[in-house]
Amino acid sequence: MMLGISVTELRDLVISLIALVIAFSVLFGGAVLDMNMIIVSTLGVASGFLLHELAHKFTAQHFGYLAEYRANLWGLGLAVASAFAGLLIAAPGAVMISRSRPPVQSYIQDSIYGSAVPDPFHQEELASQLKREMLLISLAGPMTNIVLAAIFFILGMSGLADGGVWAQAITFALFINLILAAFNMLPFGPLDGKKIFDSDRRVWALVGLPVILIALPIYLGII
Q1: What does the alpha-carbon distance between residue 71 and residue 211 come to, in Å, rounded to a whole number?
Q2: 125 an active-site residue?
Q3: DSSP state of 47
């Protein structure tokens, strides 16, 4: 096991990376795979998707959860097939999170019946702790994309990779990370944004709303 990643999990990550690189390469470069397009796609997928999922995983493990990435083979197959049709529908997989053991409960003695009952003050504190943990776990993925987008923006503006395939790769990685951060911050369904919104609306307003407003005109091609 390397960095808490099992052999099975590493296999799923590699399969997801290969499938998504092929899908993006076909979508933007055509059915005949071009090495430059593969390089561009690999940087975008590896940074935008894999680091996003690993951020969820390692944050969950930090709080004592069991966390493992599992590939969705049907979703990956759909991503590749849809790319040949000129669009990309992807459900590559996700980090499955569970506790290794239930959280410790605290009890007090009932003064009337003499039996042990849950301590309401401790239960409230425990619920608050679990809510905070889930907030940070959910926030880890999109925040990784936001930080990476900022790094790629700085690299692009620096002119260190002015022209050529690496300039294209940096631009694509910036786009992918920004769009993934914004998409995952949407407060709907199973997305990270819904969990963040439910946990703390102030955090969502501070982080999620600005990145959505920045990414939307870029995604629509307005700027």
Answers
A1: 27
A2: no
A3: I
For 6-34, the pLDDT digits (tens) are 899 999 999 999 999 999 999 888 877 88
Pair 137, 63: CB distance under 8 Å: yes
Alpha carbons 146 and 172: distance in angstroms, whole number: 14
β-strand pairing of 107-109 with 65-71: unpaired
Judged against a pLDDT cut of 60, whether residue 2 lies above it is answered with no
Structure confidence by residue, pLDDT tens digits, 149-181: 999 999 988 877 677 888 999 999 999 999 999
Q: Which of 175, 165, 202 is nearest to 48 (CA)?
A: 175
In one-letter notation, the amino acid at residue 118 is: P
* Full-model pTM: 0.85
For residue 200 the two structure tokens come to 């703390």
Q: Determine which one of 9, 53, 68, 125 is catalytic.
A: 53
| Cα separations in angstroms, 121 against 22, 106, 125 | 53, 9, 6
Measured CA to CA, the distance from residue 104 to residue 123 in angstroms comes to 10
10 Å CB burial of residue 158 (0-12, 13-18, 19+) is exposed
Inter-residue contact 24 to 11 (CB < 8 Å): no
Give me the helices (H) in 1-119, please.
7-29, 35-45, 51-62, 73-84
Query: Given this model, what pLDDT does residue 211 score?
Result: 96
Q: What is the pLDDT of residue 19?
A: 95
